[in-house]
User: What shape does this take?
Amino acid sequence: MKLKLDENLPLALARRLRDSGQDVQTVHEEGLAGHQDSEIWQVAQSESRFLLTQDLDFSDLRKFMPGTHAGILLVRLRSPNRRHLTERIAELFQEKGVEEWSRCFVIVTERKLRVLRP
Assistant: This one.
């Protein structure tokens, strides 16, 4: 799965996901940090990359309806420190069938995972 990590996720997560075989690009590495969400979204979609983010600007299901994009993972942790973010997301990618999330809108919390399919 081709992934794009938003700037609000730790770079250590990109390393962990790459180590597990994922194709990961980050907003930081591409020089897009600080750019408008719409630009980051355009780049992710033009590359058919699944966007991982904490940004609530990507939470509107009317705008980001499953099946109309490459996919979004919206992370909503109560205490989103770098270590906790890295551990929770890396755990998902090790344990779940994430390849099935293509074109889905996925919401993850500490204990729950909700996959909205097209």
In short: The longest strand covers residues 2-5.
